[in-house]
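---------- Forwarded message ----------

FYI, see the aspartate transaminase record below. Original note from H. follows.
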Amino acid sequence: MQEIGQLNSNQKNLFSHLTQAPSDAIFAIMNAYKADTSENKIDLGVGAYRTDEEKPYVFDVVKKIEQEIVNDPSLNKEYLEIEGLPEFNKGCQILLFGKDNPLITSGRIVTAQCLGGTGALRVGFDFVKRHLQGDVYVSNPTWGNHNQILDRVGLNQINYPYYDPITKGFNCKATLDCLSQAKEGSIILLHVCAHNPTGVDPTEDEWLQIADVCKTRNLIPFFDCAYQGFASGCLDKDVFAVRKFAELGFQMIIAYSFSKNMGLYNERVGAIHILTSSQDIATKVLSNLKMVIRTLYSCPPAIGGRIVSRILCNDNYYQQWVQELNVITGRIIKMRSLLKNELDNLNVQGNWDHIIKQTGFFTFTGLTPQQCDQLTQDHHVYLLRSGRMSMAGITSKNVKQLVEAIKIVVQNK
């Protein structure tokens, strides 16, 4: 009798053809940072907020609502609807499009609760693959997971130039030139604000120029909104692009994440919005969107959605959230100024104005991969080799150490 667990000699090794898949760059940095025993290590790869004491932060209003949910006898663990909580979806629409926007009551917006921003992107692009199938234009550079999601879904990707390494800003002309050559019906992936990884956003005038090209070429906007509130510090100002495109009559798709602006990273709370031409079309779009969701994860989890719903649908909780969010965004903006001032004070070679011109969680420093490697190996500073630096990892206590390390690697180039 064959021993339990002994391999079947008649069956070939099913997985011998596999090669080791590359590790995710961001998670690899996280693990390397954790393994480092230095007392002076600095984590600038983290895509999550940290306090000035380098600690994770949970919103007070979130903790309060979590306790309410636990003690609410009316709640249960039954499945949610495929598209999630109705009050969540309504609150998300108001936050993104504005309370008095007539689109909210028009029935033209389809919204579904998703598994974070990543889940919203996957659902959205799966829907595109099935029903639109155009090429997808992606900014160069972009968040690395965009490329992987599009690859898995099977959509053809085309890069459009976005970042200008000379000015360390947005290359508007090159972007417009590229998009003006795009085939009609192509999808253009746009970061709403706080572009990841560069921190470089178009101005309002540049957004209008992008909209004009999209209208002329009949391009379909697909917005990724992961940082509302983190660019300017104003929730309304940060979604200018979405509201303006909607005002101009675009049908479009928006993937939304609450990981950053409500600190719900491990709750995986996001949403997909599809703005359609009519209420009748919206009904049909929702039915097909639900088919996508059903085959991916069936329905979303409840706790995170309930937290977001109570914040967005209760004026008192909403104001508490906005106040806390202002503190968080204020610290990140302050760290930009502090970093820029320290670089200038220590006469670090180069122009560092881009640090305060860029916005959001990340700064594209302009450091080379070799300089980033040296920062990690010699100075225990962890960041992506692209030079992307998380502003949330900088504190009033470690900024001088960081700048001294940057000065060394820049002078040694």
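H. also flagged this: The longest strand covers residues 109-115.
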